[in-house]
Amino acid sequence: MPLTEDRMTGHQDSELLSSGVAASTKIFGGGLTAVNAAGYALPAADAAGLKVVGISEEQVDNTAGANGAKNVLTRRKKSFWLKNSSGNPVTIAHLQTDVYVEDDETVSSSGGVNNIVAGKCLAVSSRGVLVEIS
Q1: For residue 26, what are the CA distances in angstroms to 21, 71, 75?
Q2: For 68-103, what is each residue's pLDDT tens digit?
Q3: Cβ neighbours of 7 (radius 10 Å)
Q4: pLDDT digits (tens, 9 = 90+) for 28-70
Q5: How many whole angstroms from its chain centre is CA 31?
Q6: Which residues of 26-55 are buried (b: 16+ CB within 10 A; e: fewer)?
Q7: What pLDDT is stored for residue 12 in this prediction?
Q8: 53/39 Cα distance (integer angstroms)
Q9: Which of 66, 63, 64, 67 is nearest to 19 (CA)?
Q10: Which residues 6+ apart lie within 8 Å of 120 measured at CB?
């Protein structure tokens, strides 16, 4: 039903998110982090059904826990320097295009088997690939 009067709409910052970590999973601080189809966090990989959420703020070891037994803080809505793939490198020709997850620290110019998008390429240098994750 549409509004018929003013509404106080709640809000919060969404740059830093807390997500339950998948069972039997260890996430390293500074790693590219994704969520699976069930919504649990794990290191980003070229695996079916994953969605990149950002970069982990901390190491979380849930290798002995069930789904959601521990949480990880993940930062998004920023640009991050990630490692460039040696097999399918991102080049200046890929500026402002999607780049893809190779593993939890590496992005590539091709989508691999599952086409998991890491984010948008903003720069390429000897430092790596600057990837905007929204």
Answers
A1: 8, 11, 17
A2: 999 999 999 999 999 999 999 999 999 999 999 999
A3: 7
A4: 999 999 999 999 999 999 999 999 999 999 999 999 999 999 9
A5: 8
A6: ebeebbbbbbbeeebbbbbbbeeebebbbb
A7: 86
A8: 11
A9: 67
A10: 96, 97, 98, 99, 131, 132, 134
**Would you state the pLDDT for residue 18?**
96
Question: For 30, how many CA atoms within 13 A lie in the half-sphere containing its CB?
Answer: 5
DSSP letter, residue 132: E
Q: Using an 8 Å Cβ cutoff, are 96 and 79 in contact?
A: no
DSSP H or E run through 16: strand 16-20
DSSP 8-state assignment for residue 22: P
Q: Quick one: tokens of 52?
A: 């990149």
62 forms beta bridges with 25
pTM metric for this prediction: 0.91
